[in-house]
Amino acid sequence: MIIRAATAADAEALCEIANWVIRDTLITFASAQKTVAQLRAEIAEKGDDYLVAELDGQVVGHAYYGAFRSGSGYRYTAEHTIHLSPAAHGRGIGRALLQALEQRAVTAGLHVLVAGISSANPGAVGFHAALGFTEVGRLPEVGFKNCQWLDTVLMQKILQQAGKPDPDSTEKPG
To answer: Which residues form the N-acetyltransferase domain (predicted)?
Structure first.
């Protein structure tokens, strides 16, 4: 298995994974499928912080992070996304992706990573807990997909306990 930064050439494989998650699961509340062009734009925007897992020459998963909320007070906190192809589950690929993403986040100066997890995906709650994330809240019935109301489970991990950043800084970390 190889964990590496995504490239535009990965967009088609990533589109297949993303659209499987959107179309066939309750992992995300999104209903509009993605296009290859959208994925290429996301890869370009996130740069080296958009990671893919490759197994036997095939892209089988991806992970990235982005802003948790707008406003400069949240600049040291990010929300991450991680998705695997069906064949990649249970093989340690998700763990490797998330650990690599956490290293990138620390290097970028982030303090906290947040996971917003569908209540229809209890395996993801256990996965995150095993990697040091703590459940910090539950938002009842905030998602609606496939004719059912779904909760969002919020989990977080404090990445670094270093001193406080400069309170006058408006710069993004990293």
So the answer is: 1-160
